[in-house]
Here is the input.
Amino acid sequence: MMAADRTVHGVPPSLSAKVVGSFAYLTVRDRLPTILTKVIDTIHRNKNKFFEEYGEEGIQAEKQTIGLLSKMRNELQTDKPVLELTDGLQDTECWNQYLQRQQKIHGDEDSVSWFKSPWLYVECYMYRRVHEALWLNPPISDYDVFNEGKTQSFFESQQAMIALCTYLEGVNKNMEELSKNQLHEHFNKLLQVSLWGNKCDLSISAGQDNSQKTSPIDSLNSLQPFILVNDSNMVWSTLLSAQRPGQSEKTAAVRVDIVLDNSGFELFTDLVLADFLISSHLANEVHFHGKSIPWFVSDVTANDFQWTIRQTTAANHKWMSKTGVQWKSHLKEGAWSYHDHPFWTTPHEFCDMEADAPDLYATLQGADLVLFKGDLNYRKLTGDREWDHAVGFDTALRGFGPAPLCSLRTLKANVQVGLQPGQGEKLGSQDPDWMTSSKYAVIQFSSSKCEQKD
Here is the structure.
């Protein structure tokens, strides 16, 4: 049973574009059509590439894909009902069932339209329809329309990456001599670098002089006041209490899962943190969870993950290439592993996971700590609802708790829970865009573990 089916007392409504002037409304009205236009433009610009690779068939596929995407853009802009998917993929039935449930809740098909439905649902649906348009048009089915932007983001951030690798090299070289307090300090710094991954990326690509060896580490102190909730000490305690000395290697292994968000610089910061977790023996295994299809413009796919490690290894800088070699070795030896699951590219809020993707839920239960990166994961953790800012994070999770978990998120959507009473109102009066400008961030922890069923 889906969360939306449950009438739970006190659960607020989903954020939706039906509220004219809201951030959801402006996203559906302006940002989503702009993204679709860019997707159409990218496919059109690559027409010659498709012709070179596939001949006339490639040109036909390009035309038909653009036709389907233009049709969807028109449906979106004129608030037409959401349509069933027709591509017959592994998750098609799941998507169509979700639509039918929405129609049942709202009473008729016309009510489940682009502006009247939950924002989280229609935004996810748009990316799934982009995938459908390509899939229905072989031979360009596997083309990643967002790849150009992702690779550009990586190359624009090289200076910061080099600075991080140099820092990591210094830490790793002295690892054996570090006291517990020093280890804790390095952990906090790298957790915050991973938190601000997006932020650092944007400031670095905003034309900073590349001769300046700008290190994200140097920005951390000035960013500190913008962390609205900082539960990093609870994350640290969770890692320490997971250490099981005296047990066999297999049962003593500490596992951290990282549910990834963006590729480019943010992924790089996640890999640096994961490297530190392994080399410091805070964890023995890190499992990365990415997306099985191109998603939300810059989300990490298996291809992006492998490409990033290859590029790091091939970098023309001693410490960066050494870091890349180390990452390859983590993968080869099984200390790191990459996974994807179709659930991550559905519109479901995470409190549905145990019922709708029990295999994934069971996988996460094997972790000692799960880090959820970024804004979309936060929206799904909290159901993307109109929660009061002072509502507890545990309450907003609505029973989701496969393992101790922590959200590392810069705010880019208007949902935020777990603040002190009055804190949200005060921020709103000082800075009306505080929830959507990515200026603020949270490191928000929940230890809640669901009762295990017999």
User: Anything to note?
Assistant: The first helix runs from residue 23 to 45. The chain has a mean pLDDT of 92. The radius of gyration is 22 Å. The longest strand covers residues 285-290.
